[in-house]
From TrEMBL:
This is Fascin. GO terms for molecular function: actin filament binding; protein-macromolecule adaptor activity. GO terms for cellular component: actin cytoskeleton; cytoplasm. Gene3D superfamilies: 2.80.10.50. Keywords: Actin-binding, Cytoplasm, Cytoskeleton. Residues 21-133, 142-254, 266-376 form the Fascin-like domain. InterPro entries: Actin-crosslinking (IPR008999), Fascin (IPR010431), Fascin-like_dom (IPR022768), Fascin_metazoans (IPR024703). GO terms for biological process: actin filament bundle assembly; cell migration; establishment or maintenance of cell polarity. It is found in: Cytoplasm, Cytoskeleton. CDD domains: beta-trefoil_FSCN2_rpt1, beta-trefoil_FSCN2_rpt3. PANTHER family: FASCIN, FASCIN-2. The keyword tRNA processing does not apply.
Length: 437
């Protein structure tokens, strides 16, 4: 079943890329490490953990092995430690170009090298000791200010991004992280980039690129002048403040961005909770009360629908549907059946959700007809990054074809029309299926 917590902080996984564009890899055989892989897969994913002793050091745990990177006094490195010991503690030294230098805290030497010739014995920093951080999480998320406990979103009236929202509701709360020249940009839902002075610009210029830093499991964004993004002033406008060291005001969490949808019934009206707890198709415009957060259980593929008023859709007496549940249970789960450009929803009683004559929804139908079909529109993905089991979707170099196993991603545009979607690439080309013989 899905978790009852809607606000799920993403576990920050990443790859470390050396100066020859090869990823740090943890091998099962002998728990050896190398920098030979050209792309980011399971063996190349790492998780940063804070030092249990609350010091400035951090730990690097392999997502693949569940073990910790360590460096001995003679410079030998491995990923064998099941529990973090003294040799597993590293200091991260961010460089002006966005790359990291890793220094063994107990031994004071720098970690680097190429291929299978990695060591932590260098006394000075050369290109071989520079590592680029490549995030492995899905780059579309919600950004939560740690100090204000508010979400960042696009504010069209002021033409800026602000961190003043109690909930990440609607398309404006979608933030897309763009990997650019070894650094990251923050892209708003209308495809503009956040510059460090708070302005939104159409190109990822140098002042719109940031070095990622991690502190106690949180993220900080350092601009080209060494200052950090923060919500500033009473309006909580996102821009670089005065601090050259990240404090609580400069720290952020990334939270998973679930699909947010609106549904249109056979009467051509929006499903809503505007007039109370009953879920009814009775509105002519799509606002917060007509928007529902849709969570998909990966095991059963069933869905929950959460309303802006703070309740899940749930099956009640006589098949009624109300947005009153505070916990996920069997009665809040719905099976989605795709029927061409429409969907039908089957509740936990085995019956389909239909629209009654007064517009209220109820799970009372045994068969699907016009009153049991809905248009389901995804509203918080005007721009789209796609990731499957094998990696991200990205254009093949020098070709119009798409690869589905890449460690880098392209951003696509999504448009909606009568229950169908059009996906377009960087130059406006639409997707179409091709069949290989």
């Amino acid at each position: 079943m899905p978790t009852n917590g809607l606000h799920q902080v993403l576990k920050i996984q990443f790859g470390l890329v050396n100066d020859t564009d090869r990823y740090l890899t943890a091998e099962s055989f002998g728990f050896k490490v190398n920098a030979s892989a050209p792309s980011l897969k399971r063996k190349q994913m790492w998780v940063l953990e804070p030092d249990p002793g609350q010091g400035p050091a951090v730990l690097f745990r392999s997502s693949h092995l569940g073990r910790y990177l360590s460096a001995e006094e003679d410079g030998r490195v491995a990923c064998e430690a099941e529990r973090p010991g003294r040799d597993c503690r590293f200091l991260v030294l961010p460089q002006p170009d966005g790359r990291w230098v890793l220094r063994s805290e107990p031994h004071g030497r720098f970690f680097g090298g190429t291929e299978d010739r990695l060591s932590c014995f260098a006394t000075a920093i050369s290109p071989a000791e520079l590592w680029t951080v490549h995030l492995a999480i899905h780059p579309q998320a919600h950004l939560l200010s740690v100090s204000r406990r508010r979400y960042a979103h696009l504010c069209p009236q002021e033409d800026e991004m602000v961190a003043d929202s109690d909930t990440p509701w609607g398309v404006g709360a979608l933030i897309t992280l763009i990997f650019q020249n070894r650094q990251y940009c923050l892209r708003s839902c209308d495809s503009r980039y956040l510059r460090s002075d708070g302005r939104l610009v159409w190109e990822p210029e140098p002042r719109a690129r940031y070095t990622l830093e991690f502190k106690a499991g949180k993220l900080a964004f350092k601009d080209c002048d060494g200052r950090y993004l923060a919500p500033v002033g009473p309006t909580a406008t996102l821009r670089a403040g005065r601090n050259t060291r990240p404090g609580k005001d400069e720290l952020f969490d990334l939270e998973e961005s679930h699909p947010q949808v609106v549904l249109v019934a056979a009467n051509h009206r929006y499903v809503s909770v505007r007039q109370g707890v009953n879920v009814s198709a009775n509105q002519d415009e799509e606002l917060h009360h007509e928007t529902f957060l849709m969570q998909i259980d990966q095991e059963t593929k069933k869905c929950t629908f959460y309303s802006s008023t703070g309740g899940y859709w749930t099956l009640v007496t006589h098949g009624g549907i109300q947005a009153t549940a505070t916990q996920v249970s069997a009665s809040t789960m719905f099976e989605v059946e795709w029927r061409g450009r429409r969907v039908a929803l089957k509740a936990s009683n085995g019956r389909y959700v239909c629209m009654k004559k007064n517009g209220q929804l109820a799970a009372t139908s045994d068969f699907v007809g016009e009153d049991e079909e809905f248009i389901l529109k995804l509203i918080n993905r005007p721009i789209l990054v796609l990731r499957g089991l094998d990696g991200f979707v990205c254009h093949r170099r020098g070709s119009n074809q798409l690869d589905t196993n890449r460690s880098v991603y392209d951003v696509f545009r999504l448009s909606f029309s009568d229950g169908a979607y059009h996906i377009r690439g960087r130059k406006g080309q639409g997707w179409k299926r091709s069949f290989l013989h």
